[in-house]
């Protein structure tokens, strides 16, 4: 598949096709792909660059296959969707997260295939997208190098192993989950795309707290951190699904909160 | 290590140079500081590898012998190796007799191309690691250092070292084969001056780097170095240590780092949060501390998560 086809295919999955929308606002990062992504992700919705969205990344991409990103939009009210994307990645969108009960906060790791803006677009109930992010310099290869478990050859032995936990800190509950999965991008010779494509979190009453569409640009063995307001639920059900139709699930039970010194 | 004026100007211009424009490096002018009879320390900048320093961030050592000088760690690039070779010849009046590469990392090893491979010595494990990772390092070094790297190729040391005393031109250096910073870490004891050349097993007032670290093995190697009688120690990065402080400081950093990251995993933090953990005030004088903490999070965190987070699948 040619790169441009893939870009179009990825973009088409997550947003309406471009209509006769107004031009998106001028990009403070000066990205060559901003207009392309903005038109396809946001359509005719209003778009603002907003410092209320905190996108935290390390200053260097030490490992372009596992690059951590934290998006915290808790300063905004009424968040319905958070889209994390890297403009110049061959698979631009990493996750499309709908916090249906969880706080508008997500931490994960993505792959980087070159120097790119890493951004979060946060949509509030009025339809407006609040965008923030920054450039990260990276050498090539995050998306086009084989996963470590492919090289090692043991990916199938551990496929779908779920690890995690939940921590009450007095106000909120923090939930972490990792799933062993090669997250093949399809950009490595003779290895078809194969990735976790959906993940949900529910509380012990069965209420859906988070729904997420996951793309191949999320790092191998995907890891996610959520924050759930309140400390009422003692257990959280995680259900995931991959592009081969396999289902994975787990239950994270609350433990006492983290040491105060480690809370920021 | 000093970078000439031209290098500084080029670096200063680099930020404003339009994309696609050529950026020229300066020339290396390494400085040798005498640290004993017939032994000189060539200091690297206590920084990250960057265009402004030409990648010359690791320490090198020159030892005079009757057969010609020995050079420990030829630096980041062919041209740095050439400058070091010229410096050693100037100091001793002879061309280099032997070049030692302490471990695979390119800031220490890539200058080896300035020398005949038949005089370049390393542990057998270092050769294996260079064959595995050298091409990737080369890509990264050329990308960061551009013109500084001109003519530099992945080194293939021609001599394999084994532990024990090695006599060259009337000087005896004891070869120690250790590990932990990488899979094969060479340390050398210069017996006549009691100088322990520790490579990157020891950092001094500069935070340790962990891209290939095995922390348990590293601690074991630090214990072996501490129990080797010596009068002074040359760390891989940072100033000469006459007081045995550097081994203890490296050990202290590794212990703190591992416990802090394990505590972070056990407390439910994610990687960006672990990278911004407070660094204890006793490391205030340690250069590049935040930078190396964030690198170490990338190297170690997923491993600690796999170990410490319990299986929860149903």
UniProtKB/TrEMBL annotation, chain A:
SUPFAM superfamilies in the record, alphabetically? E set domains
Which superkingdom heads the taxonomic lineage of this protein's source?
Bacteria
Q: What name does this protein carry? A: Sulfur-oxidizing protein SoxY
Ranges where the Sulphur oxidation protein SoxZ domain occurs? 170-252
Heme keyword on record: no
Q: Which Gene3D superfamilies match?
A: Immunoglobulins (2.60.40.10), SoxY domain (2.60.40.2470)
Residue span of the signal peptide, if any?
1-22
The opening ranks of the lineage are: Bacteria, Pseudomonadati, Pseudomonadota, Alphaproteobacteria, Sphingomonadales
Q: Where are the transmembrane segments?
A: none
Q: Where is the Ig-like SoxY domain?
A: 39-143
UniProt keyword terms in alphabetical order: Signal
Q: Does the keyword Protease apply?
A: no
- A Pfam family per the record: SoxY
From TrEMBL, chain B:
Q: Which is an annotated GO molecular function term of this record? A: hydrolase activity
Q: Which family does it belong to?
A: Belongs to the metallo-beta-lactamase superfamily. Class-B beta-lactamase family.
Q: Which residues form the Metallo-beta-lactamase domain?
A: 57-237
Q: Which Pfam families match?
A: Lactamase_B
Q: What superkingdom heads the lineage?
A: Bacteria
Q: What's the protein name?
A: Quinoprotein relay system zinc metallohydrolase 1
Q: Which residues form the signal peptide?
A: 1-21
InterPro entries documented for this protein: Metallo-B-lactamas (IPR001279), NDM-1-like (IPR050855), RibonucZ/Hydroxyglut_hydro (IPR036866), SoxH-rel_PQQ_1 (IPR030811)
Q: Single Gene Ontology BP term?
A: antibiotic catabolic process
Q: Which keywords accompany this UniProt record?
A: Hydrolase, Signal
């Amino acid at each position: 598949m040619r790169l441009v086809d893939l870009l179009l295919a990825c973009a088409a999955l997550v947003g309406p096709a471009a209509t006769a929308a107004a031009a998106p606002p001028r990009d403070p990062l000066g990205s060559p792909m901003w207009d392309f992504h903005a038109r396809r992700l946001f359509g005719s919705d209003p778009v603002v660059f907003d410092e209320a969205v905190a996108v935290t990344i390390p200053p260097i991409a030490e490992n372009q296959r596992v690059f951590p990103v934290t998006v915290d939009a808790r300063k905004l009210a009424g968040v319905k969707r958070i889209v994390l994307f890297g403009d110049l990645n061959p698979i631009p969108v990493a996750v499309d997260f709908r916090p249906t009960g969880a706080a508008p906060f997500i931490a994960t790791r993505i792959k980087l295939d070159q120097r790119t803006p890493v951004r979060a677009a946060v949509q509030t109930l009025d339809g407006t997208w609040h965008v923030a992010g920054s450039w990260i310099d990276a050498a090539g290869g995050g998306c086009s190098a084989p996963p470590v478990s492919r090289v090692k050859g043991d990916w199938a032995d551990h496929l779908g192993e779920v690890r995690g936990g939940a921590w009450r800190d007095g106000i909120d509950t923090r939930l972490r989950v990792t799933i062993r999965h090669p997250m093949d991008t399809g950009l490595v010779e003779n290895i078809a795309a194969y990735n976790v494509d959906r993940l949900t979190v529910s509380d012990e009453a069965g209420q859906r707290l988070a729904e997420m569409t996951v793309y191949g640009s999320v790092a191998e063995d995907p890891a996610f951190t959520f924050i759930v307001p309140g400390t009422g639920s003692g257990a959280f059900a995680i259900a995931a699904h991959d592009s081969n139709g396999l289902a994975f699930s787990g239950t994270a039970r609350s433990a006492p909160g983290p040491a105060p010194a480690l809370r920021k | 290590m000093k970078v000439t004026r031209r290098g500084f100007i080029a670096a200063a211009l680099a930020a404003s140079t339009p994309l696609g424009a050529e950026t020229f490096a300066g020339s290396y002018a390494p400085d040798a500081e005498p640290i004993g009879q017939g032994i000189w320390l060539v200091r690297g900048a206590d920084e990250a590898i960057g265009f402004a320093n030409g990648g010359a961030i690791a320490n090198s050592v020159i030892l005079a012998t009757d057969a010609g000088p020995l050079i420990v760690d030829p630096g980041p690039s062919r041209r740095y190796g050439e400058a070091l070779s010229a410096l050693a010849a100037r100091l001793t009046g002879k061309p280099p007799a032997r070049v030692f590469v302490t471990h695979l990392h390119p800031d220490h090893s890539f200058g080896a191309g300035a020398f005949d491979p038949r005089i370049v010595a390393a542990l057998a494990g270092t050769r294996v690691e260079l064959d595995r990772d050298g091409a990737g390092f080369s890509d990264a070094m050329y990308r960061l250092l551009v013109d500084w790297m001109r003519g530099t190729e992945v080194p293939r040391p021609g001599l394999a070292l084994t532990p024990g005393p090695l006599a060259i031109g009337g000087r005896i250096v004891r070869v120690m084969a250790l590990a932990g910073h990488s899979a094969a870490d060479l340390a050398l004891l210069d017996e006549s001056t009691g100088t322990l050349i520790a490579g990157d097993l020891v950092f001094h007032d500069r935070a340790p780097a962990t891209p290939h670290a095995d922390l348990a093995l590293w601690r074991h190697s630090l214990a072996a170095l501490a129990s080797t009688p010596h009068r002074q120690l040359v760390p891989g990065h940072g100033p000469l240590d006459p007081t045995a402080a550097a081994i203890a400081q490296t050990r202290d950093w590794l212990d703190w780092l591992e416990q802090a990251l394990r505590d972070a995993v056990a407390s439910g933090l994610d990687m960006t949060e672990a990278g911004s953990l407070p660094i204890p005030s006793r490391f205030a004088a340690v250069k590049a501390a935040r930078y190396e903490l964030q690198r170490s999070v990338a190297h170690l965190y997923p491993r600690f998560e796999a170990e410490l987070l319990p299986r929860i699948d149903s």
